[in-house]
Write a structure and sequence with these properties.
Radius of gyration: 25 Å
Helix content: 40-55%
Largest sheet: 7 strands, parallel
CATH topology of the largest domain: Alpha/beta knot
Distance between the termini: 88 Å
CATH superfamily of the largest domain: SPOUT methyltransferase, trefoil knot domain
CATH architecture of the largest domain: 3-Layer(aba) Sandwich
């Protein structure tokens, strides 16, 4: 298979807790029109039904192949890059992309592995905790006086930008994509370990540290550590939790060795 075509088919659209099945069908139609095929649904309020099939207008094969997940963590398993779409900006600033840049990054990263675009709920979009699982936030510019954009319409815009950009992404992000960042599930394991260590060491109160944890997620999402680096970080966390033997690598400094003594027990040089 053509490497560019193979990359195109590694892009998954993840719809989170969609309320109206018709929107799922319309999103499937938007994807198929642009040649995309990977649809993942997180806890939809109603599973794809006759209304979804009708709105899909011939893309019912995408509906039949759609993967259903109980939570977003499972839907992102194996992804090296995750971009979340949101109509509103957040109090914790997140790296922000417009649709064209979003498409270029997804396509460039898909040459190396699985990637995902996450679309939120019709009424409220993505929660802050869901956004914290994304490396970037994609924002579609709209009229400030009327920001309401249907989730299927948003899917169409992103699908169009992906199709338009496909094959022309070039090497714009080559330096970033040459690394092999840890997948989403490895990062989730690290974040859970980090949160537990912060509690165990008395660094933070878990009831009051949600915003702090989101900031730390943003920090490590920006760094995009690989698996080896994540293992190193988790080893440090384990040591901080007391799961390693304290001082096990300390060595005696020869220059500070005990002074020699005479037969009476006096240190050399003492009267």
């Amino acid at each position: 298979m053509d490497p560019d075509l193979e990359a195109f088919h590694r892009i998954r659209f993840v719809m989170v807790e969609t309320t109206h099945p018709g929107n799922i069908g319309a999103a499937a139609r938007a994807m198929k029109t642009m040649g995309l095929s990977r649809l993942h649904l997180v806890n939809p309020k109603v599973l794809p039904n006759a209304e979804a099939v009708a709105r899909a207008a011939g893309a019912d094969d995408l509906l039949a192949a759609a993967q259903i997940h109980g939570d977003l963590v499972d839907a992102l398993r194996g992804c090296r890059l995750v971009i979340g779409s949101s109509a509103r900006l957040r109090t914790v600033a997140w790296p922000l992309l417009e649709p064209a840049d979003c498409a270029r990054r997804l396509l460039a990263e898909a040459r190396q592995g699985e990637v995902a675009l996450v679309l939120g709920r019709e009424r409220s979009g993505l929660t802050n905790d869901e956004l914290a699982r994304c490396h970037f936030l994609a924002h579609i510019p709209t009229d400030p006086g009327f920001r309401s954009l249907n989730v299927a319409s948003a899917a169409q815009i992103f699908a169009y930008e992906l199709r338009r950009t496909w094959g022309t992404a070039g090497e714009q992000y080559t330096e970033e994509t040459e690394q092999d960042p840890a997948p989403a599930e490895a990062m989730e394991g690290f974040y859970a370990h980090l949160a537990q260590t912060m509690t165990d060491t008395g660094f933070s109160d878990p009831a009051q540290s949600r915003k702090l944890l989101r900031r730390l997620r943003r920090l490590f999402n920006r760094a995009r550590p690989d698996r080896v680096e994540i293992n190193i970080l988790r080893g440090i966390l384990s040591a901080a939790q007391g799961k390693k033997t304290p001082g096990r690598f300390h060595k005696t400094d020869p220059s500070r060795s005990a002074p020699s003594t005479d037969p009476d027990g006096n240190a050399a040089g003492e009267a």
